Structures are given as C-alpha cells and as structure tokens.
Amino acid sequence: MARIILSVNAGSSSVKVSVYSAELHQSPVQLAEAQVSGLSAPPVQLTYARDGKTVAKNKEVGREAISQSDAFDILVKTLVDDADLTQIKSKDDVGIICHRIVHGGDFSRPQLITTETKNHIEDLNDLAPLHNANSLPIVRACLRDFSAARNVACFDSQFHSTLPPHIRTYPIDPDITKRNRLRKYGFHGISYAFITRTAAEFLGKPRDRVNLIALHLGSGSSACAIKGGKSWDTSMGLTPLAGLPGATRSGSVDPSLVFHYVANAGRLSSSSTKDLHISRAEEILNKDAGWKALTGTTDFGDIIASSSSSPEKKLAFDLVVDRICGFVGSYYVSLHGQVDALVFAGGIGEKGAELRAAVVGHLACLGFKLDEGKNEAEGKEAVVRDISGEEVRHRVLVCQTDEQMEMAKTCAEEEEFW
C-alpha cells in the first residue's frame, strides 16, 4: 500500500519539503517539492514545483523575517491547497514525515520520534544550539497537527557513527569528555549517504567496496573520507563549526583565537534563551566569520566572478581552495591512496566550475585531472556525472545530492516506520 512521505529540511534561512509516494521496500517517487527562503534576509520567497514542473518561482510571500514554523505552515498550505496535487487533500493524507535533525549525538540510525526521542534531541541543544533549534519547532507542530503520520528523525551525524576511536577522540581528559559527550560527531551525513550510494552505483561497485573523498560545499561546507562505503573521517567535529570555512562560519581556527578577538567570548550572547545557551564565541565564529567576514558577501558565486578584480575576494577564494585541498590531501593519505573518486556536491560544489578547476589543479600530483569541457558543462539531468580527464589515476565526479530523497528512501526501507 502506497503512503505519502513528507521530507522536511529546516535550515537557518530556509525550509524545504519534498513529497513522495512510496511503498515499503520500494524507491520513493517524487510528487512535488517546495521551499520557503529568505527567512533571515527578507523578502521571504516561495518556490514550488509539481511533477517536475515549476508552479511558482521566487514568489514573494512576506517582507518581514519569519520563523521556520511559519515557513513550514506556508509550505503545508501550498501543498494542501493545490488542487492538482490530488494525493494530499488534507494533513491526514500524510503517512510519514521525516525530519532532518543536525545533531543526533550517539544515534547511529534514524529514530521514530516519541516523547522520549524528542526529549533526547532537545537535550542535545547545548551541543548544537545554533542548529537543532531550527528543526524542533516543526517536529513539535507535526506531532500535534498530523495525527495520522509517523514522525521520523534522520540525523546528519548518524552516517559518521563509524568513525574509528583514534579519529573521533579529542586528546583531553577522558572522564570529562565522556561525561559531557565531547567527541567528533561529523555532519552533512544524510548528504554523504546519498553521495555514497549514488556514486557506488555510477562506478558499478558494491557500496561496501567504494572509497571516496567527498566534498559537500555550500554556505556550510565539509569534507568526508569514505572507506568501504562508511565514514572514515570528516572535517566537522563536535559541532558543524570545525573544518572548512563557510559563508559565515570560520571553520577550524586556533582554539584560543576567539579569546584574543573579543574580551567576553565565554559569556552567553544576547541570542541565548532559557533553553538555548549560546556563548559569544559560538555566535562570532558561526555567524560573524567565514567568507562574508572577508568580503562582505555570502554569495560565493560573486566571489568567484570578482576574484580577478577584488583582492579581498581573491583572498577568500584562495583560502577556501587551500583549506579544501588540505583535507583532500590528508584523507588521500589516510585512505592509502586507494580512492575511487573525488566527489563534488552541495550548491557550490555542483555549480562552481571555477572552484572545481582550482581544487583539482592543485591535486594533479595525486592523480586527479579534469576534462575542461565536461567540468564547464551544466549537466542538469544527471544525478552523477564524470568530469575526469583522460588516462587519470582517480575519477572526479559531480553529484547532485538530495537529502530529502535520502531520508524518504531510508523511511521506505524500514518496516518500523510504517
């Protein structure tokens, strides 16, 4: 019996939903997808597509900043009110709702959301105060308003539950780290699960025999070493702040830097609430850093386009390339050079031909090489495409990652969620 699955992906500035029809143990079929963007930088806009055709694009739905919950309400109303989306006439037609939750702590697989699970996720807020908070209000609303649906939490950290002890452990007092759950968790795992599955299929290899270095590059960026289809190492750590720089995140810096940067780094910021404890240091390094701090813009496309004429933007571009190459080199050694492919994904990874060319150019010594024509071609239809040059030691791929599909597919495979 087919069920309607709603995949919900709540970010800091947007909320995305995808609607699927699925049967147990069958691959879901997408019916519609919608996004409300501009939550933190109005105007707030709606983009909606049904059956692969655009119904609304960047339609303004508000001039004021709104919450993730408000955005979700707009999306649900858009779906229910669409007479041509016959599969959803009311909220009761939704059978499963899967939620992307950034931090899942020690959860190694998706969880049916019960009161106990919800409370556990809320307990993780201190580990990811700037991230889980975006998803939890929508989870609460779905538990309240979708009486016929089962809610499932899919964690960005779960893919990295396979990190070996010597990689996930921080060299500080073990008793304190255990008590406070301080270790490398890693994130973007739903994306990396999709990348691993689709890249293995593209390469014609069993998933458990594929070795990849994957790059999820966007406003939040990370790298991941995948060994035998499982996460071996990743650039993010206890929180998504570690590793590569992002639009407003610093990435890895000297841990003492922030205390020299501002005198009150350890104090709670004005953004804190009784439930969310956000230090000034976390706020600075997550929201007031990254390439926006260097250039004044979060638009990496603009940075690429202007890097030849703007010293600040050239610095930001070169810095990002350098940091990416540093992780690729480290992971290449960690995988003993046994790498099937380097995979670019995420908004910048999928669209940034100039960035890919710069990164792979630096990696030529490791046996990576691009075909210039393939790299510059858009390739919108292919989920995975090969942009490698001829006679290369390792392949270079571009993957159009799809976190909503990965969540829906996971739910369709698990009987307990039905």
What would your notes on this structure say?
With 418 residues, the protein is α/β, with parallel strands linked by helices. It has two domains: 153 residues, ATPase, nucleotide binding domain (Nucleotidyltransferase, domain 5, 2-Layer Sandwich); 195 residues, 2-Layer Sandwich (Nucleotidyltransferase, domain 5). Helices cover 34% and strands 21% of the residues. The protein contains 15 helices and 14 strands. The strands form two sheets. An eight-stranded mixed β-sheet has the order 5-4-3-2-1-6-8-7, sandwiched between helices. A six-stranded mixed β-sheet has the order 11-10-9-12-14-13, sandwiched between helices. Helix 11 packs across helix 13. The N and C termini lie close together (10 Å). The model has no long low-confidence stretch (mean pLDDT 94).
Inertia-based shape: globular
The sequence of SSEs as H and E is: EEEEEHEEHHEHHHEEEHHHHHEHHHEEH
CATH first level of the largest domain: Alpha Beta
How would you name the CATH homologous superfamily of the largest domain? ATPase, nucleotide binding domain
Q: What's the total count of β strands?
A: 14
> According to CATH, what is the topology of the largest domain?
Nucleotidyltransferase, domain 5
Helix content: 25-40%
Estimate the strand proportion.
15-25%
CATH second-level architecture of the largest domain = 2-Layer Sandwich
Ends distance: 10 Å
Q: For the report, how would you describe the main beta sheet?
A: 8 strands, mixed
How many structurally independent domains?
Answer: 2
**Mean pLDDT score:** 94
- Report the radius of gyration as a whole number of Å: 21 Å
Uncertain parts? none
* Spatial arrangement of strands, main beta sheet: 5-4-3-2-1-6-8-7
Question: What structural class is derived from the secondary structure elements?
Answer: alpha/beta
Q: Helical segment tally?
A: 15
